Amino acid sequence: MNGSSALLEIKEVSLTFKNVAALSRVSCSVQKGSITSLIGPNGAGKTSMLNCISGRYTPTKGKISLDGRELSGVPAHKRTGFGLARTFQNIALFRGLSVLDNLMVGRHSRLNYGLLASIFYLGKARAEETRHRERVEDIIDFLNLSAYRHQIAGHLPYGVQKKVELGRALAAEPELLLLDEPMAGMNLEETEDMARSILDINEEWDVTVFLVEHDMGVVMDISDHVVVLDFGRVLASGTPEAIQNNPKVISAYLGDDDDLYKGR
Question: Considering the entire predicted model, what is its pTM?
Answer without folding.
Answer: 0.87
